[in-house]
Design brief:
Blueprint: H1 13-38, H2 44-54, H3 62-73, H4 76-101, H5 105-128, H6 132-164
């Protein structure tokens, strides 16, 4: 059994861009999760009040009120659990980015599957309320899944062609 591995120089530019994007998402979520851990044993409600005051928002309006209500119910255990979830998600994204950057087939499968999972949810959100951001996210996700499927099909053709050569 042969394992198909591409050298980094032979990885296509679109796959490299997806790898960099996935790596960026992983780092961003890792930073966010670290921020959550910094809030353990802190008065989250007081911090939320400060953020709202600094942003010159009316605490009685809808979204700041929701934010304050949520902040008032946050417990250290919940913050730790969210931080753990962020760390797991970030690890998966960074692992995927590494594999894509180095031309690993498993990473292409992971990227196609993890991207495809979100498409039905994005379509439902778009049907609920159309916004430019939702359209862009859906199109970007479809593009990523398409790039990965194309890469997998080309990889399969290459491996079957190499298997038939003496």
């Amino acid at each position: 059994m042969q394992v198909s591995v591409q050298t980094p120089g032979s990885v296509s530019r679109p796959i490299r861009l997806v790898a960099l994007f996935e790596g960026f998402k992983g780092i961003l979520v890792l930073v966010a999760g670290s921020g959550l851990l910094l809030m353990v044993h802190k008065d989250v409600n007081a911090l939320a009040v400060q953020i709202i005051a600094h942003s010159h928002l009316n605490p009685a309006s809808r979204y700041p009120e929701i934010f304050l209500e949520f902040a008032g119910r946050v417990q250290d255990g919940r913050l730790q659990l969210l931080a753990l979830g962020a760390a797991v998600y970030a690890a998966i994204r960074l692992f995927e980015a590494y594999g894509l950057y180095h031309g690993r087939a498993w990473a292409e499968v992971l990227a196609a599957a993890s991207g495809a999972i979100y498409i039905p949810l994005e379509v439902m959100e778009l049907l609920r309320h159309v916004t430019a951001l939702r359209i862009i996210l859906l199109l970007a996700n479809i593009a990523v899944v398409g790039i990965m499927i194309r890469a997998l099909v080309l990889r399969r053709k290459d491996s079957s062609r190499n298997a038939t050569e003496p």
